[in-house]
Amino acid sequence: QVQLKETGPDLVQLTQTLSITCTVSGFSLTTYNVHWVRQPPGKGLEWMGAMWNGGGTDYNSAFKSRLSISRDTSKSQVFLKMNSLQTDDTAKYFCARDSLYFDYWGQGVMVTVSS
Amino acid sequence: DIQMTQSPASLSASLGETVTIECLASEDIYSNLAWYQQKPGKSPQLLIYYANSLNDGVPSRFSGSGSGTQYSLKINSLQSEDVSIYFCQQNYDSPYTFGAGTKLELK
After folding, report:
1. From CA B101, how far away is CA B104, in angstroms rounded?
2. Distance CA B3, CA B69 (A)
3. Which residues on adjacent β-strands are paired with residue B89?
4. A29-86: per-residue pLDDT in tens?
5. Which of A59, A88, A108, B58 could form a disulfide with A94 if both were Cys (CB 3.0 to 4.6 A apart)?
6. B64 touches chain A (CB under 8 A)
7. Alpha-carbon dihedral A75, A80, A84, A85, rounded to 10 degrees
8. How many angstroms from the chain centroid is the CA of residue B61?
9. Cα B104 from Cα B85, distance rounded (Å)
10. pLDDT tens for residues B75-99?
11. CB contact under 8 A, A103 and B55
12. Measured between beta carbons, which residues in chain B are less than 8 angstroms from residue A50?
């Protein structure tokens, strides 16, 4: 069955770099797009970016040049990397499969940015 | 960027009641709208896609409608398990923006 699972650190220091891995199963990264969405505590959802099935990427300009998304199709993994973290980057980070809509989501990983 | 204005921000209703949540896009999104349900501590779950198509396994008391810039989610005969936060999202154009959410509680 389709599954996505995010793994990453619970805590990241201010100004450091966040790295999260989304490991998928039940579908191919060369067939489906995968998106990253984050949610600060008690707040709404923010679309961050996407890894297209053809290997291209798309980013929310709100993250300017801080964000990078990549993948390893042989391992069925999509990677999020974001640098220069600030306290307002504290959030739960989700990956989601896109079949025109976000039909499957991972459980998310809660990341706290600490000074 | 396309702005999604969702209303109301919170809603209190009784069991068995019908509730409606609305979403207004800042430009025409040609029915490229989804509704998600999120329960506390969980990831969002897709309810409705392409404005009015029910996702597999979603109870038929949920329905979506709308076109152009105006969309709505209706829940008939409210059940206790419907207590959640509901989000709309446009996937017409990047960035794929979400509404701010509607918190639905039982009266």
Report:
1. 10
2. 10
3. B34, B98
4. 999 999 999 999 999 999 999 999 999 999 999 997 899 999 999 999 999 999 999 9
5. A108
6. no
7. -110
8. 13
9. 6
10. 999 999 999 999 999 999 999 999 9
11. yes
12. 94
